[in-house]
Here is the input.
Amino acid sequence: MEIKESSPVVSFKEGKGRLELVISNNDPNQPSDLQRIQRGLNLRPLGRTIRRNLLLVAGIAAALTAFTAMKSLKAPRSYSGGFRLLVEPITGEARLTDPSVLSRGGEASSFTVDYPTLLQVLQSPTLLSKVAERVKKDYPTITTDALVEAIGSKQLVVQRIGTNLLDNTKLIDVTYQGGNPYQVQAVLNALSQEYLDYSLEARKSRISGGVEFIEGQLPELKQRVTALQKAMQGLQERYKLTNPSSSGDELVRQALTVKTQREDAVRELQEQRVLYARLQNQLQLSPQEAIAASVLSQDPTYQKLLADLKQIDSQLAIKDARYSEESPVVRALQDQRRNLANLLAQETQRIVGRSQARDTGNPQVLAFQNSVRLDLIKQLADAANQIQVLEVRSRALASTEQETGQKIEQIPQIIRQYNEYQRELEIATRTLNQLTIQRDTLSVEAAQKEVPWQLAAKPALPLDKNGQPVPMPRDIKKKVPMGVVGGIILGIICAVLLEKIRNIFYVTEDVQDAVKVPVVSVIPYSRQINLSEDNSYNWLHRIHLSVMHNTLFRESFNNLLAGLRFLGATEPIRSLVISSASPGEGKTTIAVQLAQTAADAGQKVLLVDANFRMPQVHAHLGLDNNAGLADILEQKQDLATCIQSAPDTENLMVMTAGHFSADSPRKLASQQMKQLVEYLSEQFDLVIYDSPHLLGLTDSCFLTAYADGLLMVVAIRTAKRSIVMQALTTLQEFQLPVLGVVTNHPRSVSGMSYGYQKPIYHSEPRMSDRRSKTPSLDS
Here is the structure.
């Protein structure tokens, strides 16, 4: 059965010595707001572990603290001394009198000391080896490795005084400690002298390196300057440009002028083409045809022949109407017309020439041209001539514009190259001048002999009134607290390891922190009080404790039943499997008590003993085991025969395990078992299956697959944590519904009273006053 998101979750926790019922309307898989905050760092299990093993933690902490104190008291005395170096001038006057400033004409250098790097250099094996050489005659044990090891152990410390920008100084503090005060003094003297020598040698080597570098750069720079000057001169001569920038401006202006002229020519050409097209459309003549028509219209001979031809055509038309084509009159007129046409063609060829005679095919050419058409023909000829002129001009201007554009495109490259040469020349010239000046300056500085660094405090050890070295105070005040803290941490680690080895749950909160399913209820420890004491006070007190424990025991099952009802708020839980990770955790007792509690609440309940490995339900209720679930699955008995009424409890029916065989557990996975579970769920309000443990067995898994869910029993201080987690992981891998966990207390837990008086008597546990037999809670 799946739990809906809207279903409330009921859980119980042990708080302030009593059981507390917690009801939440959230999904149990969804953490609460407090859980979301604590999930990142949940220290509650660690706190409980420390409380349970407080004596162990305290003992280990005390032992380690004592050991640390004794070791500190027995440690040999050591001596410490030191000196301080001033590595930079501290006033303006001191800076002005510095040799490097004087060599630069009084101009202070802008360079600053890289203190982190300087400190690393001062602690380098190279310098320390020189220190060891100075003292090895008197103290052979002082070697380079010994000094490097002293730096690692903080016996030799080289540091800058100051911790931030506000109190950082220009002083370097050097301290050294050891067991021999005279050896400490000798090492400090050697360190101070070596550091002072290093400052002078470092300056000289730095200056010499600078001069050598400059000398190596000057020839190349001179060659570079000469090459750049020649390159600029060659560029000017190649393009005949004195100043590329001004020449480029002149070309741009010329290009704009040519572009404007070309645009004007294109516009006029477009206008002439429009006029030409309009005139040609009006005359229906080409320019050659128009010229031919104009010439023919002005020739009198041609016009007379044309008039005679028209007259013959008129006569021929009249004669055709009166005579047939074979008539001599018609034939004579036709011959006369052919002769006139030939004469007209000859005259046309004579007038317009052979080349233009082919253009006279258009009838408009041979027609008479009046003065208006002659004027239009003149305009057509002028437009054609103007178009040719403008086309030639446009092509010439376009070519000029293209050539100018190409020159303009080259100008930026020329200017860029010229400017690049000029910029490189300026840089090379400036660098050459600077390096020359710097070389002269460094040469002056190299001649200086004054040590750059100064001793602000000479190497010394603290002395007493008699002038004897004073040893360092013992660091017991520092080491004892460290021992306490280390002892506590070690004790906590031991406590955690001890509980890992024990591998049990101590309290319900351990279960809640470990598992991902809700803890539905907490079953308290139940005890049967012996009332045979003679002391009347003890007798009355025992009666009170008996009533108290039985009431709390029964109330826990009422809470468990209520929790199951809340879990099934949307869909009621009709079938329930009760199991545990390992045997002996009290699952059978809880199944019997839960069934009786549900029956007392008015539900029709069936308790089924499905534990074919070790059936115990019949023993708890004092019933016979002649027929039961195994007989039904083997089809040896019918259902009615195998169901018995529980004694002293109404509404509670019981189905024992019956006579089972080695093959009976496999029947729990059969289709017959599935049908039986579905049938019983319809007949009863609640069916509870007491199943075998989960360790190494799959009986409970088969039953859970058919039922609404599984309720796992975890015995506090008995169940193995690893086995419980393995069982829950198996159920999750099989995707079986786990309704929750019930924590059982089959043993008395010291200090756990669940809200009542602390229990002080020990005896055998019992179920309730309604049982004739009282089996243990761990069954």
About this structure: The chain has four domains: 42-66+474-505, 76-245+399-471, 255-398, 516-744.
